[in-house]
């Protein structure tokens, strides 16, 4: 089996997503792909890219130490991140996708689109969404 985490950085919500995906990967002996997509990185994001990749390398090492086969991927295609994640899932025969979701206003969705919505509606496999409430329960 192959699982995918749509990763945006080491936020508290992403930690909860990674934790759940890691548990499921161990349970099902699945290969875990941690995928990040940058649409059109600006100058500051390019500078931070080296640090971001180092964080991914560390994350991969941590997962591997926990007995999880793990690969990391950063995509810079010019496409929307949601579209990149769906395409990666199709191209790599992913069995399940894990995403973090947060509430945003309707105006925010209109202006920025919703990568989570794209992934949930267009993915070729089941999508597990982790929200703030789940993360909060994990802390208690």
Fold and architecture overview:
- With 140 residues, this protein is α/β, with parallel strands linked by helices.
- 53% of the residues lie in helices and 19% in strands.
- It has a five-stranded parallel sheet, sandwiched between helices.
- Helix 1 links the parallel strand 1 and strand 2 (31-37).
- Helix 1 (12-28) packs across helix 6 and helix 3 (81-91) packs parallel to helix 5 (115-122).
- The protein is globular and about 35 Å long.
- The model has no long low-confidence stretch (mean pLDDT 86).
Features of this protein?
alpha/beta; five-stranded parallel β-sheet; Rossmann fold; 140 residues
Concise structural overview:
The protein is of the alpha/beta class.
* Poorly predicted ranges: none
So, the CATH homologous superfamily? Answer: HUPs
Biggest sheet features: 5 strands, parallel
Mean pLDDT: 86
Q: What is the annotated CATH architecture?
A: 3-Layer(aba) Sandwich
The Rg value, from CA coordinates, equals 15 Å
Distinct helical segment count: 6
* Tally of structural domains: 1
Overall strand count:
5
Quaternary state of this entry equals single chain
Order of helix and strand elements from N to C terminus: EHEHEHEHHEH
N- and C-termini, Cα separation: 31 Å
